[in-house]
Amino acid sequence: MIFDTDIFIWAQRGNEKAAKLMEKSDERFLSVQTYMELLQCAKNKTQHKYVKDFLSSFGFIVLPLTENIGHRASIYVEEYTLSSGLRSGDAIIAATAVENSLILASSNLKHFKVVKELQLKRFRP
């Protein structure tokens, strides 16, 4: 399973359901986009270290931005930005999930529901 940025934020805020969702997943992935968003939210090097240690301790694998993911994400932006407001970061996350045949866990389904080939798992905090 690949996790959207919001799941990590819920877990960091102490949401037990988010933590359990991560724990029960056999394989844990995140897009490099999510990784960058988590680091970008950090206010100092201590928080950077916390993010990296958290991901490492749970065995998360950061999936890189490949040419295919970039191409697919650009198509999503072209197709869905005007009609649904899909943003580039979410397009990269969705494309990463689709290209790797992974289910995306997110509580922000409105961001992703327009992507027809994307498999979504709704998280309710």
Features:
7 helices; Rossmann fold; mainly alpha; 125 residues
Please describe what this structure looks like.
This protein is mostly helical and 125 residues long. The protein has a single domain, classed as 5'-nuclease (Rossmann fold). 59% of the residues lie in helices and 11% in strands. The chain has 7 helices and 5 strands, in the order βααβααβααβαβ. The strands form 2 sheets. It has a 3-stranded parallel sheet. Helix 7 links the parallel strand 4 and strand 5. The radius of gyration is 14 Å and the shape is globular. The chain starts with a strand and ends with a strand. The mean pLDDT is 95.
SSE blueprint and pairings:
Layout: E1 2-3, H1 5-12, H2 16-24, E2 29-31, H3 32-41, H4 45-57, E3 61-63, H5 67-84, H6 88-99, E4 104-106, H7 109-112, E5 120-122
Parallel strand pairs: 1-4, 2-3, 4-5
Helix pairs in contact: 1-2, 5-6
Quick structural overview:
This protein has 125 residues and is mainly α. It has helices spanning 5-12, 16-24, 32-41, 45-57, 67-84, 88-99, 109-112, and strands at 2-3, 29-31, 61-63, 104-106, 120-122.
Please count the helical segments. 7
Domains counted in the coordinates: how many?
1
Order of strands side by side in the largest beta sheet? Answer: 1-4-5
Beta-strand content: 5-15%
What ranges have pLDDT less than 50 throughout 5 or more consecutive residues?
Answer: none
Shape: globular
